[in-house]
Write a structure and sequence with these properties.
By secondary structure, the chain is an alpha/beta fold. The protein has a single domain (about 50-390), classed as Alpha/Beta hydrolase fold, catalytic domain (Rossmann fold, 3-Layer(aba) Sandwich). The chain contains 14 helices and 13 strands. It has helices at about 5-20, 30-35, 110-120, 135-150, 170-180, 180-195, 210-225, 245-250, 260, 275-285, 300-305, 340, 345-355, 385-390, and strands at about 55-65, 70-85, 90-95, 95-100, 105, 125-130, 155-160, 200-205, 230-240, 265-270, 320-325, 360-365, 370-375. The strands form 2 sheets. The chain has an 11-stranded mixed sheet, with helices on both faces. β1 (about 55-65) and β2 form a beta hairpin. α1 crosses α10. The protein is globular and about 65 Å long.
Length: about 400
């Protein structure tokens, strides 16, 4: 267990022994009071400034509509809601500076109509981003806005936000809420995939979001009525916090079944041995995660070391699966968001979103034909990461 994982688990153990393990506080406001204001239930044809709010969101978070600015909480909502948003920014409200996402809730029918109009102006492509552990609505929309800006995606971008707590010690709560949200997400994904005007759904799932996305795709495949869900073709798992062995066992039987791969479905998984968040997850769950090439089998690790090879172990070769190892170009304090932080990874990610499957910067990991390493690029030093990844340093969440 590395130092980060030990440091993360220590507070959990101490809190458990003290009998004060973090719990979800209902709060001193009835949840029904948060949504009593009519703005929480917008009527059809209510005006929304699409130019000011160009991006789309779907959320199962509980909204707080008591103040002029709607805020999405960490509690479970009473139903799924739809809306539009713009990139979050610092705003001064009541003398206090807060990081807020400009947003407007929208009637479900209006939202689908706006999404269709936006997709129709493009090529029918839609990008769906699903966040992971320890995210607020603001950090989720910040990342979704960066993805839209960085990729220049030629269609509408949707952020799906489930009620993550945005707290380090609330990992178990986030897992619980993620599983609670399975029905909500798979119903939305099914509705999206069944729209006749959607030609392709590009799905980007980060961290714990992979555990929401992968089984939902399998559900949509089973439930697809005639369309065969073939428009879900490009699936990107960034730092996926999903059991690696479970993924290996199940994926070729459903999401990457032979018929799906024959119709060009593919999964690209970005992994890193320097991902401290996934090292902590491995310590909690006992088994390695798909997003970390940790060698669980010590005999395999010893053999790699004896052969002078990097001690890294990956998911087995599965048709339709490509693994991109970002260990050597990892960025950030945890190395858990390289696809948004590292210039080399950002460039690769942009190409994958665009459907370009081959990049000269990828170095094959022989004899594993499905695994590639990304190596440092002298022409893209660390100080160019923000520029190439098009991070907006003026809108960074605290």
């Amino acid at each position: 267990m590395n130092k980060f994982a030990t440091a993360l688990l220590a507070p959990f153990a101490a809190l458990a022994l003290a009998g004060c393990f973090p719990t979800v506080d209902y709060g001193d406001v009835r949840h029904s009071a948060y949504v009593a204001e009519p703005r929480c239930t917008p009527q059809p044809d209510a005006p929304v400034d699409a130019a000011a709010l160009p991006l789309f969101f779907v959320t199962s978070r509980l909204p707080d509509c008591r103040e002029p600015e709607i805020h999405l909480l960490g509690h479970r909502g009473d139903r799924v809601r739809y809306g539009r948003f713009a990139e979050p920014r610092d705003e001064t409200i009541g003398g206090k500076t807060r990081f807020r996402t400009p947003l407007a809730l929208q009637a479900e029918s209006d939202w689908w109509g706006a999404l269709q109009a936006e997709a129709g102006r493009k090529q029918g492509r839609v990008l769906l981003y699903v966040h992971g552990y320890r995210e607020s609505f603001e950090t989720t929309t910040k990342d979704a806005a960066q993805i839209a800006r960085m990729t220049g995606f030629d269609g509408p971008v949707i952020a799906y936000s489930w009620p993550s707590q945005h707290k380090v010690l609330s990992y178990a709560v986030d897992e619980t809420n993620m599983y609670h949200d399975v029905r909500n997400f798979r119903a939305f994904l099914k509705a999206l995939a069944e729209q006749p005007w959607v030609t392709e759904v590009v799905i980007v799932a980060h961290s714990l979001g992979a555990r929401l996305v992968v089984p939902a795709i399998a559900y949509v495949d089973r439930a697809a009525a005639g369309s065969d869900s073939r428009n879900i073709s490009n699936i990107i798992l960034a730092s996926p916090d999903i059991d690696r062995e479970t993924f290996e066992r199940d994926i070729s039987a459903d999401v990457l079944a032979e018929a799906k791969v024959a119709r060009a479905r593919r999964i690209t998984a970005y992994v890193s041995l320097k991902d401290k968040a996934l090292a902590a997850s491995r310590a909690i769950h006992g088994y390695p995660r798909l997003g970390s090439p940790y060698c669980f089998d010590s005999f395999v690790a010893d053999d790699l070391k004896a052969r002078g090879l990097p001690v890294r172990c990956y998911a087995h070769a599965i048709p339709g699966l490509t693994i991109v190892d970002t260990t050597d170009v990892s960025r950030g304090s945890t190395g858990h968001s390289n696809f948004l932080r590292s210039a080399v990874v950002c460039r690769d990610f942009v190409d994958v979103v665009a459907g370009r499957l081959v990049r000269p910067e990828r170095v094959p990991v022989a004899p594993l034909h499905h695994v590639f390493r990304l190596l440092p690029n002298p022409a893209a030093p660390k100080d160019s990461d923000d520029i190439i990844c098009q991070r907006n340093s003026d809108t960074e969440a605290p």
